[in-house]
Specification:
CATH architecture of chain A: Orthogonal Bundle
Largest interface: A-B, 43 and 43 residues
Shape of chain B: globular
Low-confidence stretches of chain A: none
Number of domains of chain B: 1
Oligomer: heterodimer
Number of strands of chain A: 2
Structural class of chain B: mainly alpha
CATH architecture of chain B: Orthogonal Bundle
Helix content of chain A: over 70%
Shape of chain A: globular
Number of helices of chain A: 14
Number of strands of chain B: 4
Strand content of chain A: under 5%
Amino acid sequence: MRKNRFHLTDLPSAVIIFIVVFVFFAVSAGGFFSAYNLASILTQSVIPCLLVLGVAIVIMSAGLDLSVGNVLTLSGVTCGLLLKAGMPVALAMLVGVLTGTACGFLNGFMVAKMKLPPFIATLAMMNIASGLANTLSQKKPVYWEREAFPILDTIGTGAVLGIPVFALIGVLVMAVVIFVFYRTRLRTNVYTLGGNEEVLHLSGVSVAKWKIVVFTLSGLMAGVGGVLMDARVTCADPTVGTGLEFAAVVGAVIGGNLQNVGKGNLFGAILGAITLATIRNGLSIMHMNNYWQMVLTGAILVIGMVIRELFVRIEHKKKLKEAEASA
Amino acid sequence: MNVKERIVDAVLKNALLLLLIIGVVVFALFNPGYLTLSNMTVIMKQASLLGLLGIAQCIIMLTGNIDLSVGATIALSTILWSGMIKNTAIPSAVPMLLITISGAGLGCLTGLITTKLNIPPFITTFATNYAYRGIAWLLVGSTIIYNLPQSFRFVGTDDFLGIPITIWFEILIGAAILILLKKTTLGRRIYFTGSNRKAARYSGIHTDRVIITAYMIGNAIAAFTGVLYAARLNAAEASIGASFSLDSVAVCLIGGCAITGGKGGVWGTVIGAIIVTAIKNGMNYVQVSSELQTLVLGLLIIIAVFFNQQVDKIQRK
């Protein structure tokens, strides 16, 4: 028997949900299947995709990051305030990204050194980041003088070959993360962290260090997301990130990333984020109001999980049969 | 055990109470109006609802699960309740009973999805949170139902023997759950399932059934709390209690529940609720903005959980 045979369970449920949802909307929602709309779905999912990469890696390492949404907001607000104060664009953006990275580092520190469960540490960070962002911005969107920063406008609204510049930057960052993940020790260490922490420890790798690395990476992604969001909406809104953390976690999970299995899939995670963006886009084209969107998004997620569970059972039966046949 | 060890032990065991006392003293120093009987009554009254929510979350957390949809359960149940009580001819106990049962129904659904489909509970309850609140939105949209008839509202507003009825309910339900957890087989099974689900299953416990029961009890309490809340507020709307789910989790964690399950109880949770309310109330007294309060709540969670862990470590030695 060949070892790396394809298993149904390897298929993230996002693939099935995406195909079903896509076909459904293409047939029944007029205007969904147009180049313009498909492009806008991709544009809308750039920032969620950034977040989902970070969160997926955290989940693979048996962690969880609930703070990315509010950390994104905090980074955005920090960057916006600095721009308002007249700081050069590059420096303001750098500080924004570093703010996110610092939050991620603190998450990692709490999990690795203070031994807090990731759910709790990041839940607390979610509150802290939201409190800071709202206090700094006094609960109002932060505006800066747009004329003073033409570069920021180019990033936010400009396009190269028809592709928005901020999307290009986002994709570039994603490419770097994916490359680093699949080409360095990061992947093996993250998988081992998720599968069996003890093994990593016994093989002489610092568990604490890698946990911090993983959470810091997630914070970095949120920081980049926050700064790009600033450029895109030309202001720093202190509510912009609310709910993004759950979208990221759900995207990562339906993309085939689970805790404690010792494997994962970044491309699945990206597809998961795009799937959620597609659902939102399609439902609003069909003039479903927010309420229906809420109910249906919830239902679709559950159905996705049902499908996955079915696959698990089918695989299980197959294995049993094979075992019987060989016995 | 010598005297010193005994003192250390007593301090550790009552650390939560000490924390509460220190908090109260600090706020009283800043503002004398804080430590008055009337303000303490306000705190206890507010803490009673949060405490009930905490108890609801606590039962679920003890099995090693979590429910992020209790806020949505509350929204849906208050909407249903306010719809039911338009007809004032029915006795006030009937709608409350029906709502509690429907809460158990919602919990049953959540529990079934989590256990039978093997989905991590925070994902399930995130989805059901969307779905339940969405149903509430679909029923009433963004309208606010207000001016509820007083013949139903008394449970949230009136006193009985000089003590608010909500506090009576907290005592009653708290005592019932305390007995359930400490004196019945189901209670032991809930702790066992939370401590080690595999071992519990191998020793013949239907862990799925235990978890589903916990979700049912928890959501029934949450729905009941929703009724009390709407009765006190004199209004019901679909967006009610958006922060309740996370608040209830925070209360449990501060009260010493472990998120992995099997540890914690009613006492800790009730005190956790009082601590959170007393600190929030105190911050209002010294005029800390609500945004900063969120930040403080975050810090409080970190400190409490970290502290609880250290206490555990020392006690195990």
